[in-house]
Amino acid sequence: MIESIERLTELLLSGNQDEAWNIVWEKRQQGFDTFYIFQQFISVSMAQIGMMWEEDEISVADEHLATTTCDYVLSRYQLCIRQEVIKNEKKGLFLCIENEQHFLGLKMISILFEEHGWQTKLLGADSPLLHATHAVEQWKPDLVGISFSLTHHIEKASEYIERLQKTKHQPLILVGGRVVSNYKFPLVQTNQVRFIAQLEELKEFFHYQSIRGIKVVDY
């Protein structure tokens, strides 16, 4: 697996979309599930790339190329698994807070929800609170996923959580991102607000979480 991760990292940095896709889909054909592929394979590779950028081993352009290549792979993966999905009526809306540009982890979560039958909408990076609130009020999702990765965004994330909890539809708020994974911060988990540090934690959610009396189960 280590050799595969190193190879994927090389392919992402070189912008080789087709070969990066092939190595990811090969894992699927070998029997690995989406949780494993996202958490233990793609996320590890992108974390390596992030560390390389922080240590000035690669340029901003290199990091951006890897990100767009990874985005392509995830989109192609999403299209392939749609053929296997049994749809239900639950809806999830996913967004990054304003000025948050790191969206790949959020996209993985959105794909996992879609794989489990949810209707999903991905607003993506840098979603202003006003527009996010409007989208929630218009579409009325059962769940809103919020992502942020920087500690100085904690106060802004708190504003999103507080405002979205007060929307008329009152969706469940799912909060994730690198900050949730690596730091303790003053945001309180409630019955309406849940924090996800690792993708694997969603397995329990899909098995046991009830939203408005509807049981969420694996297919």
Automatic annotation (TrEMBL):
Pfam families: B12-binding (PF02310), B12-binding_2 (PF02607)
Species name: Priestia megaterium (strain DSM 319 / IMG 1521)
Domain of life: Bacteria
Residues in B12-binding domain copies: 89-219
Full protein name: Cobalamin binding domain protein
GO MF terms held by the record: cobalamin binding; metal ion binding
